[in-house]
Design brief:
84% helix, mainly alpha, 93 residues, elongated, 2 domains
Length: 93
């Protein structure tokens, strides 16, 4: 029963998005500052702001990837040490 509601909600959102894309005019998708404006300092600043935000996002995602790679390498190193320790104990016996 819960999946029917979820499916209905997804269909409703997709239909609304399709209606906006097909029925909306191009001025509805532009911000009031940029629509119809020539190249100005405001547009340049907006583009720069978007690039900065994308850069910050990529740096944070890169940090996550680097952290998980570090954890994987550390787990491999610890497993190798434990294997070497166990192997040396078995050779002594």
């Amino acid at each position: 029963m819960n999946t029917k509601r979820m499916r209905f909600a997804i269909v409703r959102v997709v239909m609304l998005a399709a209606a906006m894309v097909l029925g909306g005019s191009s001025s509805a998708f532009a911000c009031p500052v940029c629509f119809g404006a020539e190249e100005s300092h405001m547009i340049d600043a907006t583009r720069f702001g978007i690039l900065v935000l994308l850069g910050i996002t990529l740096v944070v995602q890169g940090a996550f990837v680097g952290f998980f790679v570090y954890l994987r390498n550390r787990a491999k190193r610890i497993a190798d040490i434990e294997l070497d320790t166990e192997w040396s104990e078995l050779q002594r016996s």
